[in-house]
Amino acid sequence: MPGRRPLVSVVLGVALLFGGCGGEGRGMAGTSAGTTVSPETTAAGVVLFGLPGPSTGLDQSRCRPERILPGEETWAPPTYDDAEIEALRARTLVNPPALLPFSPYEDASLVPTDTGGVCAVLAEPAVPGGYRLATFSDLAAAEAAGGVMTHAGTCGACSSLQDLAVYLANPDLSEPVRRCALLSLTQGDQATLDCITALGFSPPCAQIWAFNGANTREACLEVCLAAMGDPHHLPDGSLNPCLACDEEQSGPVFKAVAGRIRRNSGIPVAICRPPEEVTAVVHRAYP
To answer: Does 7 map to a domain?
Structure first.
């Protein structure tokens, strides 16, 4: 069909971009949940949600693995041990999303227009370890149906517990995804997609990661090359120009298609986010 094409050119620039977009960690340093934010906490600026480290460019005075909002109790996500993560990975999704036939950046019909509600896990007793995903209008509706919320927003390409396990298990996705992106230089785009899938992502989630990277390369390559090696954040807490470009040019489609992103799943990473964008989700007690 004219104007449509399968996954295309994920080359050196995408390797750089994936490195910036995929960085994350698991260390959960910081204060305990249950404290109330004092006015002094935010007087010098909002404390962002994330994992400060060498790649972040911010210290714990500006970024912490806690959701800190004035007047609310601080929420700190729990840590998950290897057994818990493996149990998520072992579950069987009985209604997986379809593969993407084309890049949603080139075919707007593949991008959901209604992304509200919550995505919830429901038991599927007929299949050992089975579960299904369903979108509900709100948390109350999900719970009334016997579901447990796994992230805010509609279910999508990355909503599976398999994809959740990848996010929880990997201390930093930037290097492995960068290596996958570099494969396209010598082996082609399919090798890159296969490599991202081999990291543990479900096939639809691997697709949207690769399509996101390809789109950002085309839209932001020049600014990203100029920002090569820069920390994720500027001293004032804003994203560096490369990540800001990715956020503007590729972020909306990625979020809509993926369904699960780390901030709507309550997962802190090295890219720090405003606390009001973070959903408090505990990934235990799934049916």
So the answer is: no
Q: Is residue 232 part of a domain?
A: yes
> What does the pLDDT read at residue 213?
81
HEC letters along the chain: CCCCCCCCCCCHHHHHHHHHHHCCCCCCCCCCCCCECCHHHHHCCCCEECCCCCCCCCCCCCEECCECCCCCECECCCCCCHHHHHHHHHCEECCCCCCCCCCCCCCHHHCCCCCCCEEEEEECCCCCCEEEEEEECCHHHHHHCCCEEEEECCCCCCCCHHHHHHHHHCCCCHHHHHHHHHHHHHHCHHHHHHHHHHCCCCHHHHHHHHHHHHHHHHHHHHHHHHCCCCCCECCCCCECHHHHHHHHHCHHHHHHHHCCCCHHHCCCCCCCECHHHCCCCCCCCCC
- Full domain range(s) for residue 247: 12-277
Does any domain span residue 284? no
Look at residue 171 in the predicted model and tell me its pLDDT: 64
Domain count, the chain: 1
pLDDT above 70: residue 82: yes
Do the domain assignments include residue 285?
no
Tens-digit pLDDT profile for residues 85-121: 999 999 999 999 999 999 999 999 999 999 999 999 9
